[in-house]
Design goal:
Number of helices of chain C: 25
Structural class of chain C: mainly alpha
Distance between the termini of chain C: 23 Å
Strand content of chain B: 35-45%
Radius of gyration of chain B: 25 Å
Helix content of chain C: over 70%
Number of domains of chain B: 3
Low-confidence stretches of chain B: none
Largest interface: A-C, 66 and 66 residues
Largest sheet of chain B: 6 strands, mixed
Number of strands of chain B: 21
Shape of chain C: globular
Helix content of chain B: 10-25%
Chains: A alpha/beta (337), B alpha+beta (349), C mainly alpha (522)
Order of helices and strands of chain B: EEEHEEEEHHHEHEHEEHHEEEEEEEEEE
Distance between the termini of chain B: 31 Å
Oligomer: heterotrimer
Low-confidence stretches of chain C: 1-17
Shape of chain B: elongated
Mean pLDDT of chain B: 88
Chain lengths: 337, 349, 522
């Protein structure tokens, strides 16, 4: 028995050695660990180009906006992350609220459009996306489209639309609604949504369902449409894009953010990365790549296929105070989560 | 009256003929034993009668009804033939009560009364009714199996080596109990066994089976005393087989001149004696009484009996045979003995 | 047998073996405590949350919806699986169905396709097929082998003499099946149904893809919104209670009786039922099952592979993912099997009340859904054991908790096959007890250990829920990559990962089939 014990102990030892060596590998001098909630393909493109330029090796951990934001909060000072990238602002606000970000270099902040970073400068916008109502062109004509996102909570829209309430994208839209219209109106709207909408997991899937004729419309972001058109177009044949505009809550433009962790041991490299992403190189990836998100750099045009960001008539929303904890509580209370 | 008739039954399994033309007729109320070494086809025969398998050829007629004729076949559940298998074959998921009542269709009170009656009949305590089969001994399980088969009052009961799994002591007692119950109920019985003692003790009619055929069918005494050939003789018990010259009911053999049970035959042949016909006496004087003389070449003490090998005559190459005799202290290898024979020898034809 | 073993062992030098037993028992206890960590965590979380908060999060309409979904899913899926499993097992084991052996293999093969790949395949064919009907249909094809396997083994072990006996007592064939055969299948039915039920509760990917919400998908939604918030803990608590309900139901339906064959002698080979003119109608059952359970995945994967062409086989990404998956499967498989060695040895060589209790703990722990295990380990490591946070050790521990019984079954069977006398013979030839054990039992049980590694690796390869919550930074398994790509409806890009998972699972599935045959004695 003694020998088999030794054997078992040996295996256990080997396993733990492997175990300990794994996170340690991320601590190599010229390396960065990115907690990424942006689309994986986009961040990979950024990371590869950045590594080619600087030689800094990048490790990416993939997850959802708020999953990772909450994870960072839990990890606190011990977080292995150096950089945090999101699709939406609320996750940034959450981490910033706990004081876990280091201030962004002024040069970096100055690279982006005004209003695309919070006033305290603790994180910076890296890209943007617009809310849109993707609808079935074979079923809805312009005059039958909702004038405001708020209309979707009305009884006549029962059973006709879909969204992905478990995703951070949608929760950011609700966050903007909360900031713009207050708690009571938001709770009422969520109640109407619970009645009217069929939840689907994933924005692409929601758009695909609209294209397949299962729903008349989906409340999603704009770039899913263009991404599909650029690929095969098979999930967008019947889909039309309706921007609410008029400073409607449904015209909300969500800022994707990037921040440097205060606990990072590679702050210099982390700052360099965000500077690169918001600069010429990173914004060019947005313009020429397949992400179809809006560029936010000063003087950086977005992809030609997109409606210019200035024409979207987005409502004015302060990104640093978007409160996602409140939103998830309200959505949980409404039975959407 | 004949209850069961089997006519030219044949059954092949692959290239092996399990049954190769079997005929049998069973009288109502009688007990028939089919005895043979394992693999002789006796269990196959039973399964054909029970309806678990279909014969390739031949007919089975039961109580005037044709159960099987070539390809047409009455299924087992419509035959009304009971069977008790080697290990009882009780349903492990049911209690004793449920096992016995399994084939009974009656309202609960009638059923319970009948079950209690059956328990009494097979000599089991009614307190066992709520137990599961695995809480019973082997002998008790067999009694339950019998009660279960009796419940439907079958006209024919098939017993498939029902005692072979039991200990020696239990075997005789269980056999006696089963025989008594079946006799009291007047049920015709067909027993399959490889134990010749059991077959002879149990049956009115014994069928000796070998390689898919009946070598001999007859009363127990008949098949034992007058077997058709040496192999049958040896299967049913110890036999001393001797070459002999036969004429006029007398046989000249190494054991001297013996009467035979065939007065007509003349010529050379083989005769058989059962050990109980033979007595061995120690020679006190070299030229003692009548009968053949011989020498003990080997002796093994086995308690009440001793296993001896005797060589006849004085020729070292002479005829020799082995025999169990009552043990006697004085006998030893090398002793000269005189052999006496009672009754007639049986001539194989 | 055991009593003989025990007396013989007591003759051996006393001071060594009890010490060995003591240490083995100690390790087994430590493993059991680790395995029960997730369950303990959920109960602890419920306790600290407080009644007011907990009841607010539990007694709400959303939980009611999820509960209704879960109950409906279980109530529809399990009976359908049971009927399908019994029919297929009977056809392949007890009838003269043409190509029975071939169909028998096909009935196990769906296990090589991860449940979420089944879902992906069906969505590929019928994009509008969603909700409860889709959940039930896909669950049936993904999980019916869990019932088919034990049922076909049970059919093989049934003593056909009992059926003959019942016929002689006047029962028509169908009545024989109902009153004699079915009751004896009860153990297999209950065990298989429990396994299917636990998978239904634990599965994420299958249901997430077809828009059917269960507790597991809701916990993941909460996890993605709040990482490890109280709402997620409370959903996990209800999910764990559902598991307990299933375990309790199974225990009470199974009963206490054993259905071992009574008496001695070798059971006859089961009789084969002649299907006659029904032969071709009967062929439809396995053929249609195979068409849905294997045809659809093959069709969809084939279509996307063709659509994707060579471009989707990005060797740098696919290759790296495959390599990482194989490494983590191997580490997880070996660790799981090693963790099972002490209890396997104890339960064969020193079966006591304590060892049986420990075994019970392992089974209970492994019936916790992966999402609960992962949620617990994430929270415990991030709050109290940071060095282990996001480490391979933690994810391996999750795998040990989830898959230990798989390794235990194989190990125990092979240790039981080595007579203790061989160990003693080695000792009598001058080997020390430990050395004797190594030279005999361990050596001879090696094939069982290998099977244990293989079967737990199969589980790990197709595990998605816990893996994506616990994977160390930079680690990505085939299942994770597949899931990420389908999330962006890049179905063509996901196809190579699915194909690789199936390709590596296939031989392991056949091993499972082979093993079940061996346990059944043929």
């Amino acid at each position: 028995m003694k020998t088999s014990f030794t054997l078992a102990a040996g295996v256990a030892l080997a396993v733990s050695v492997l175990a300990l060596s794994s996170p340690a590998s991320a601590q190599v001098k010229d390396s960065l660990t990115i907690y990424n909630a942006q689309h994986e393909g986009l961040t990979k493109e950024w990371a590869q180009a950045f590594t080619e330029e600087t030689g800094i090796v990048v490790t990416i951990r993939q997850g959802g906006d708020l999953e990772i934001a909450n994870q960072i909060v839990q990890e606190g000072a011990n977080s292995p992350a150096d950089v945090f990238l999101t699709e939406n602002s609320p996750a940034m606000a959450l981490v910033d609220g706990k004081g876990l970000f280091a201030p962004i270099d002024k040069a970096t902040l100055d690279q982006v459009l005004p209003g695309f970073h919070p006033a305290n400068g603790n994180w910076v916008g890296i890209a943007a996306r617009s809310t849109v109502f993707a609808y079935d062109k074979t079923k809805l004509t312009e005059d039958k489209l909702p004038k405001s996102m708020l209309d979707l909570a009305k009884p006549e829209w029962k059973g006709r639309w879909t969204a992905s309430p478990s995703g951070a994208d949608f929760q950011a839209i609700v966050g903007a609604l909360l900031q713009l219209k207050g708690e009571e109106a938001t709770a009422a709207w969520l109640k109407g949504m619970k009645e009217n909408a069929t939840p689907i997991r994933g924005n692409s899937t929601a758009m695909k369902a609209v294209n397949a004729g299962q729903f008349e419309g989906a409340l999603i972001y704009h770039y899913y449409y263009f991404g599909d058109v650029a690929k095969t177009g098979e999930n967008t044949k019947n889909v039309g894009m309706h921007y609410f505009k008029n400073q409607d809550p449904g015209a909300f433009v969500s800022i994707s953010g990037g921040g440097v962790l205060a606990s990072s041991k590679h702050k210099e490299q982390a700052q360099a990365f965000l500077k690169w992403v918001t600069g010429k190189g990173g914004q060019k990836v947005l313009r020429d790549g397949t992400s179809f998100e809006y560029a936010v750099g000063k003087g950086e045009a977005s992809n030609k296929m997109l409606t210019p960001i200035a024409d979207l008539q987005a409502p004015k929303v302060e990104p640093s105070t978007l409160n996602n904890a409140k939103v998830t509580d309200m959505m949980t209370a409404a039975g959407l989560l | 009256m004949t209850l069961l008739t089997l006519t030219s039954l044949r059954k092949q399994y692959g290239s092996v003929a399990a049954l190769d033309g079997v005929d049998l007729s069973v009288t109502a109320g009688s007990r028939t034993a089919i005895v043979g070494p394992s693999g002789c086809g006796k269990t196959t025969l039973l399964r054909l009668v029970a309806g678990f398998d279909a014969p390739d050829e031949g007919r089975i007629v039961f109580d005037g009804l044709t159960l099987a004729d070539g390809s047409s076949q009455v299924p087992a559940h419509k035959r009304g033939i009971g069977i008790v298998a080697q290990d009882g074959c009780l349903f492990p998921h049911l209690t004793i009560r449920q096992n016995i009542g399994f084939g009974l269709e009656a309202e609960a009170t009638v059923k319970n009364a009948r079950i209690a009656e059956l328990m009494d009949m097979v000599g089991l305590d009614r307190a066992m009714l709520s137990r599961k089969p695995d809480q019973l001994s082997g002998g008790q399980q067999q009694r339950v199996a019998l009660a279960r088969a009796l419940a439907r009052k079958p006209r024919l009961m098939l017993l498939d080596e029902p005692f072979s799994a039991l200990d020696t002591g239990l075997r005789a007692a269980t056999r006696k109990a089963v025989t008594d119950v079946l006799t009291a109920a007047g049920i015709t019985t067909l027993l399959v066994t490889h134990d010749q003692g059991e077959a002879l003790a149990f049956a009115d009619q014994v069928a000796v089976m070998r390689a898919g055929r009946f070598a001999q069918v007859g009363s127990p005494r008949e098949v034992y005393s007058r077997p058709v050939d040496a192999a049958t003789a040896a299967f049913l018990g110890e036999a001393i087989v001797l070459p002999a010259d036969i004429a006029g009911g007398q046989a000249k053999s190494p054991l001297g001149v013996l009467p035979v049970d065939d007065v007509a035959y003349r010529g050379k042949g083989e005769i058989m004696l059962r050990p109980e016909q033979v007595t061995v006496m120690q020679d006190s004087s070299p030229d003692g009484s009548s009968g053949a003389s011989g020498t003990i070449t080997d002796i093994n003490f086995c308690g009440p009996t001793s296993d001896v090998r005797i060589r006849l005559g004085s020729d070292p190459q002479g005829f020799s045979f082995r025999l169990d005799i009552p043990s006697r202290e004085t006998l030893a290898a090398g002793d000269r003995v005189t052999i006496g024979v009672a009754g007639a020898a049986h001539l194989f034809r | 047998m055991t009593s003989i073993t025990d007396t013989r062992i007591s003759i051996a030098p006393r001071h060594r073996l009890p010490a060995a037993s003591f240490w083995t028992l100690t390790i087994a206890v430590v493993v059991a405590l680790l395995a029960l960590l997730p369950l303990g965590f959920v109960l602890w979380a419920a306790a600290v949350t407080g009644w007011e908060m907990a009841s607010q999060l539990i007694f709400r309409s959303r939980v009611g919806e999820l509960l209704a979904n879960t109950v409906l899913l279980v109530v529809f899926t399990i009976p359908i699986c049971a009927v399908l499993g019994v029919s297929l097992a009977w056809l392949t084991e007890r009838s003269d169905l043409p190509g029975a052996r071939f169909w028998s293999w096909l009935c196990v093969t769906p296990l090589a396709v991860p449940a979420f790949v089944h879902s992906y395949a069906w969505i590929g064919q019928w994009p509008g097929f969603n909700g409860l009907p889709a959940g039930v249909a896909i669950s049936v094809v993904a999980y019916f082998p869990f019932l088919y396997l034990p049922l076909s083994a049970a059919f093989r072990l049934l003593d056909p003499a009992l059926e003959d006996q019942a016929a002689s007592l006047g029962l028509a064939p169908f009545a024989v099946f109902r009153r004699v055969v079915l009751p004896q299948l009860r153990l297999a039915l209950c065990g298989g149904a429990l396994l299917v039920g636990l998978h239904l509760l634990a599965e994420y990917g299958l249901f997430a893809m077809i828009r059917f919400d269960t507790f597991t998908t809701a916990i993941i939604d909460q996890f993605q919104s709040t990482y490890n918030g109280v709402a997620a803990y409370m959903l996990a608590l209800v999910l764990v209670l559902c598991c307990f309900v299933l375990l309790g139901l199974e225990a009470s339906l199974r009963g206490r009786s054993r259905y071992a064959r009574l008496g001695s002698g070798v059971a006859r080979r089961p009789k084969v039922a002649r299907l006659g003119k029904w032969k071709y109608a009967a062929l439809l059952v396995p053929a249609v099952t195979a068409a849905f359970a294997l045809g659809i995945p093959v069709l969809t994967l084939g279509r996307w592979l063709i659509a994707g062409g060579a471009g989707v086989w990005r060797i740098d990404e696919v290759g790296l993912t495959l390599w990482q998956t194989l490494v983590i499967c191997l580490i997880g498989g070996i660790a799981t099997t090693a963790a099972a060695v002490p209890i396997a040895w104890l339960s064969v060589r020193r079966p006591t009340r304590a060892s049986r209790f420990l075994e019970g703990c392992y089974y209970l722990a492994s019936s916790m859904p992966g999402v609960v295990v992962a949620l617990a380990l994430v929270t415990i490591t991030v709050r109290a054991m940071l060095p282990l946070y996001q480490s391979v050790a933690t994810i391996v521990l999750a795998y040990v908790v989830m898959f230990l019984p798989r390794a235990l079954v194989s190990l125990r069977a092979s240790i039981a096959q080595v007579p203790v006398e061989i160990e003693q013979a080695a000792a009598s030839l001058g080997r020390s007890p430990g050395n004797a054990l190594l030279a005999t039992t361990i050596r001879l049980a090696a094939p069982g250990a290998a099977a244990g590694v293989a079967l737990s690796s199969l589980g790990i390869m197709n595990e998605l829920t816990a893996t994506q919550m616990l994977a160390p930074n930079g680690t990505r398994t085939l299942a994770m990559a597949f899931w990420a790509l389908t999330g962006e409806i890049d179905y063509a890009g996901a196809a190579p990962y699915a194909v690789l998972m199936v390709a590596f699972s296939l031989p392991l599935t056949f091993l499972l089939h082979h093993q079940s045959k061996k346990i059944a004695g043929r």
